[in-house]
């Protein structure tokens, strides 16, 4: 196989490259030089990453057009700007985050120096997903670099143009010995996962999350699993239905619903359902005109397989909005379904497409019961003007995150850790939480060998007797 340490033709070198032990060993050797440890090195790599995002904006827009027919403005908003914000925040805060912490002392440690150091973990593996292939790959990488690690980056093969972009550009911007892009699909990833890493950060489906965790277990490697699931949306009669509908439909239309935190299904009373459906018709007309297929603002379904899966859901319940499909273009119009049953496939699987089923409930309590009868979601949305009502959801449900009166935007706030719970994942990141995820907090106690300390500590030495121990 070609020499994986030559960054010049990384794209070719990494395609189906079966010499992963050699790749990982090379990165480990580079990490062992200690150069990733200094603040200056980390800042320089992060600045280089920022330069890549700025200088390659057009390449990123083009890659996303090829992968998902994504509108340029959506790409700038959710891939480029979101990643740059994470970078700018990290560049501004890194010095502070790296500072060793001084914990509070107890009587027993009054004479000692206590410190918590933030060590890098070593060589980490970052596995990205296809739906936001830039942000979901680069933002964990930012945390890995900030915490002083070396990394192997495995973009999703399903967003092939973006994966090629990484293979071409990353070696030009980052230290090519410490940060390596590896391309490939399931067979290559299976081989890669046999290697020993010091941390694995995985974004993708719950099913593959289990495979990753199993592989990590062999080496006792800790993992963050950013997974998926069905994110419920409760719409109360007290909400401003027009505003709520616009925000919910925006969540479903963005990347045509191929978003891990997209509102998956709607819970509301039959009366609210009718108001929502009327409002959603108007909103969709505003968003994408009378012929949604002609709208340049709607992306396409990523693959034929996903397209086939999604069109099956259109057989559930009754279509009241949308329903048009075009297999040749992998187009599915934003669609609203009513009269669905709890055991319909569209109410069982994570939808991950522009289809919104509405499941009617009596009230907020029944909605909470319904949510709690299912796996813990990545996000939960509550639209209400009643503070007591949303507090009920906060208190009585468990989800990765909760957002009241909007969708998805909580993910873009650096100060709010993002991650799942239960089936929707383990661990969290963004901002300082990313830095901490990729750091080992090493406790250190430093004593001197002087007489005062020795006298104070002498009680612990045998021989033990009651009088001495009672002191
Ligand atoms: P994907 O197919 O792109 O897979 C993600 C990664 O897993 C890729 O690197 C891929 O090569 C690897 N992979 C796939 N199958 C594998 C296997 N059998 N063995 C080893 N590696 C394998 O992404 P996906 O899983 O289709 O993504 C969609 C899912 O991801 C949805 O469930 C969505 O909710 C979830 N998701 C979660 C987040 C989050 O931040 N929590 C973000 C985006 C997507």
Automatic annotation (TrEMBL):
<feature type="domain" description="Aldehyde dehydrogenase">
    <location>
        <begin position="22"/>
        <end position="443"/>
    </location>
</feature>
<dbReference type="GO" id="GO:0006081">
    <property type="term" value="P:aldehyde metabolic process"/>
</dbReference>
<feature type="active site">
    <location>
        <position position="226"/>
    </location>
</feature>
<dbReference type="GO" id="GO:0004029">
    <property type="term" value="F:aldehyde dehydrogenase (NAD+) activity"/>
</dbReference>
<dbReference type="GO" id="GO:0005737">
    <property type="term" value="C:cytoplasm"/>
</dbReference>
<comment type="similarity">
    <text>Belongs to the aldehyde dehydrogenase family.</text>
</comment>
<protein>
    <submittedName>
        <fullName>Aldehyde dehydrogenase, dimeric NADP-preferring-like</fullName>
    </submittedName>
</protein>
<keyword id="KW-0520">NAD</keyword>
<keyword id="KW-0560">Oxidoreductase</keyword>
